[in-house]
Amino acid sequence: MVSRGTPCHTCPALHPVRKKLIPWLDRLTLGRRLLLVALIAAIPLFVVSIALISHSYDSRIEFALQERRGILFLRPIEQLLDLIPRYQAALPPGAAGVDGAPREAAELARQIDGVLDTLRANYQGPLGRTLNFTDDSLASHSREQGRLAVVSAAWLAFQAAPNFAARAEIVDQLETSLRAMAAHAGDTSNLILDNHLDSYYLMDIAVVALPRAQERLGDITVQVSNWLREGTVSGHHDDIAVMDSRLHQDNLGHIASDARISLSENLASPHPSASLQKDLPTAVARYSSASHPFLALVNRVLAGASISPAEFAAAGWNDRAESFRLWQVATDELDRMLALRVAELRQERWNALAIDFLTLVLAALAIGWIIHGLVVASYNQALKLNEELSAKEARLRALGDRLPDSVVYQIVRETDGTMRFLYVSAGVEQINGLSAEDVLRDYSLFFNQVIDQGILVAAREASVRSLALFEAVVRLRRADGQLRWIRLSAAPRLQPDGRIIWDGIERDITERTRVETALRQSEEKFAKVFRASPDAIVITELESGLIIDANASFGKLFGYAREEVVSRTGLELGIFDDLYERQRMVQAVSASGSVHDWEMNVRHRSGARIAIFFSGELIEFGDRICMVSVIHDITERKQAEARERQARDEFTRKLLASQETERRRIAGELHDGLGQNLILIKHRAQLAGNLAAEAPALRLQFQQLQDMTAQAIAEVRQISHDLRPHHLDQLGLTRSLEAMIQATAQSSQFPIEHHLDAVDDLFTPEAATHLYRVVQESISNILKHAQARGARIVLERDVREVSLCIEDDGQGFAAPALHSPAPAGGLGLGSMAERVRILGGALRVDSVSGRGTRIEVVIPHSGDA
């Protein structure tokens, strides 16, 4: 490196330039020098951007050029695929070799030799090397038959073939080799990778669809023509059908579709091709015109029609020739598109380079101008910053003086180990009871207040050794006797002269320490309650239910050791009998912060069900929202309630049964005793009336006695029936209900609409009596109290339950609460509720004043009485 002012002995030729350059630089202003530096600094960036832009466009240009090379290589291959089958067809079928061939065949052989020379030059020249036509490359793609040597050898063998069959076999080999060459050229020239839609579909026509159609056209033309000459068409009917089917797959439909899309995409491109729009539809139309007659001939051959071999061959070769003309048009247009694309890319590259150059020049000018402005303003800015720094220092000192319960300080440890304060904020008077001036003058005033001096000195020495943060919590005693807890925190800075300065803050944590002590004592009390409580207590995460801690009572209640439940959820332990119930409980706690005496069922480890009262409250456990829960086991109480309820149900059942028994007894006595006596009285009154025929007044009295006795008999029978409907035992529940409804409607002139399913097989006699009484009591209530115009009774059954619905359009009433085991209300409704509960069912009464009453009874059944 040559410094300024040092003679450059290595480059004497630069001395004159240097002598002129240095004075010129010295005459430049600072702004111009900075601008020159910016321009020089932009040169590497400009070079790199040019390289990136060139690389980007060069790869796309090379891609299109490689496609053009592929098209160039494919042209002689397509010519050979066109000429060789035509040459084969021009030779007489029985001719041996090519000596004495017709003039047309000789001309075709000369053309083939010329095209082979072109292909050989392409294969062995730069074009073949660019497209990677080497033996290794062909072998790696399993295309050894695509080597030039194989094609040349096959052509020589074809010329020496003794007959048509041998030539046909060699032609197949030749076409296979040429197709392998074409496929390799398509792979290595990017043709099959082209993603531009207009050129992609042209490529599909030229590289895929037409070659496949040409191969199949040649096969069917040669083979069928030969079979027609030999008269063996009927024996090859299946072969012809297969070739015809394969030809249809890749013929007009595929090619026409690709052509339409290519034309449409070309029109939508920035530079549509007029020649493509003109020539491609014409070529496709000519190909279509040649294909239809040939396909019709193939269908006629399949139908058994007589076709001359010459006619068939002419149509086939004409169709194939039009396919090659279409290929020529497609490849010409594809080549034009690629050439236009290359030109556009090259122009875009130059435009991008120009824009890049202008952008970098403008950027360099802008950077130079910005740097100039920054340098010119730097001095003024430095002055301004100095003023602002002084103002901030003053504000920081004022802030330190006003910090509540804190002292900002700066202390230094001299090289001899002595300590002194460099700065102390005004808060020292509030916390320590010392003035800042006294502390700055004498460090010992502060140190002597500290009770835990050993802790303070040890923390300071540790900070000195490792220059680590100084932290200490100590007690101090003020001059007025007050005890204070303080926390000292400071960051050390080692000075060049060996001194250490700490910038720190002293905080009064007396109140915080008191609160923490109280909190710790509270936590200790909670821990004692937590451990000793006879009720289960557990702390869980609110959302996930993860158990954080649980007491021994919790483990005893559920059958787990504490270690088995911590860090697991109630779901994992199988505690919750109803997960939806837990979700409702969590939602209630989240909404109100706590729940109390929430009754729910849980599971013991053994699977036994436990009834509990759950009480929970939200707490914060670290950064998690948790819930502390107290669980009181009420299983024994619930069991006692169940026993009490069972005993009450049993008493009610026995009471109703004894009532029915007593009713049956009274009904029998009324029927057999009083009823018979009344009948006897009626008969005797009738006999006495007959004997007093001559005394009309007496006879009238006996007649009245008979009528009163008949009325009494009817009332006794009705009372007996109401006490115990005997036809319930004789007719069954369903028919007895229907008889009662009809009799009631007839006797009271009250319309009752009813629908009754047969339910006799579902109820025992005792259960049937209960259901009968429910309907009887409901009808009685309607007639006595409802003031209704009509009623409707529906009794239905399904596979699991029987439902009874009784409704009227009367005045309604205030419905009592009938969902509890002991409903409030009249004796009739109470009796109905008890009977329904004995049946294991549910009773619901809905009534609105002025809108009638609806009674619903649902009774489950197992299907067997």
Overview of the structural elements:
The protein has 865 residues and is α+β, with helices and mostly antiparallel strands. The chain contains 27 helices and 15 strands. The strands form 3 sheets. It has a 5-stranded antiparallel beta sheet with strand order 2-1-5-4-3. A 5-stranded antiparallel beta sheet has the order 7-6-10-9-8, sandwiched between helices. The protein has a 5-stranded mixed beta sheet with strand order 11-12-13-15-14, covered by helices on one side. Strand 8 (594-603) and strand 9 (609-621) form a beta hairpin. The protein is flat.
Write the layout of secondary structure elements.
Layout: H1 15-27, H2 30-90, H3 103-124, H4 126-130, H5 135-140, H6 148-159, H7 164-188, H8 197-230, H9 237-249, H10 252-268, H11 274-303, H12 309-402, E1 406-413, E2 419-424, H13 427-432, H14 436-441, H15 444-447, H16 453-466, E3 470-477, E4 483-494, E5 500-508, H17 510-532, E6 536-541, E7 547-550, H18 552-558, H19 562-565, H20 570-573, H21 579-592, E8 594-603, E9 609-621, E10 624-633, H22 635-691, H23 696-723, H24 727-731, H25 733-748, E11 752-756, H26 765-786, E12 791-797, E13 801-808, H27 827-838, E14 842-848, E15 852-860
Parallel strand pairs: 11-12
Antiparallel strand pairs: 1-2, 1-5, 3-4, 4-5, 6-7, 6-10, 8-9, 9-10, 12-13, 13-15, 14-15
Helix pairs in contact: 2-3, 2-7, 2-8, 2-12, 6-7, 7-8, 8-9, 8-10, 8-12, 9-11, 10-11, 11-12, 22-23, 22-27, 25-26, 26-27
Keywords:
865 residues; alpha+beta; five-stranded antiparallel β-sheet; 64% helix; 14% strand
